[in-house]
Amino acid sequence: MLLKPKNTEELQEKKKAAKLNPSRVRDHLANERTYLAWMRTGIALLGFGVVIVRLRSFQVPLVPRPGTGWKLGLVFSLVGLITVWLSTGHYFTVRRDIEEDTYEPADRWVIIFSLAVMILGAGVVYFVFTSPLDPLSPVIPE
Predict the structure, then answer these.
(1) Is 18 helix (H, G, I), strand (E, B) or coil?
(2) Are 51 and 121 in contact (CB under 8 A)?
(3) Where are the beta strands (DSSP E) in the chain?
């Protein structure tokens, strides 16, 4: 009597599931493309946060104190890091669901990140319109 190891049985079951879902490879590739898009978004948010903080060094400050621009840059950078963290977790969750053929799209991620981008955009608009202009700037409101 020859006993098969449990791992061999699991592999056979996975092969059977792969045959049931012929678009499995395409689904995994789509999941990976989505993950890479979220990674680009996270990196862009991080970069934008750094740019916001560094812009102050290119302009002579009107007020000698640090101001509030660094806070907005910090929030952008933190949202970028959170995006990278959550997108990685989401990638592995979707990967498992594709393998088990139980994937259901989640609307909460779309809502959460849409709200985050809207809040950050409102922060940028507020920051731009409330920061004092350089007196040497050719654009001075009347």
Answers:
(1) helix
(2) no
(3) none
Rg for the chain, CA atoms, rounded: 24
CA 142/CA 85 separation, integer angstroms = 46
- Amino acid letter, 142: E
H or E element in which residue 35 lies: helix 24-58
**pLDDT by residue for the chain (142 residues), tens digit each?**
455 555 667 666 666 655 566 788 888 889 899 999 989 988 998 888 888 777 765 555 555 555 667 788 888 888 889 989 989 998 999 999 988 888 888 888 788 888 988 898 888 788 777 766 655 555 445 4
Q: 42: which 2 tokens? A: 């996270």
Contact in structure between 103 and 97 (CB atoms under 8 Å): yes
Query: Which residues lie closer than 8 Å to 66 by C-beta, 6 or more apart?
Result: 56
CA 131 to mean position of chain CA atoms: 28
* 100 to 88, 90, 104, 120: CA distances (angstroms): 19, 15, 11, 37
Provide φ and ψ at 40, rounded to 5°.
Answer: -60, -40
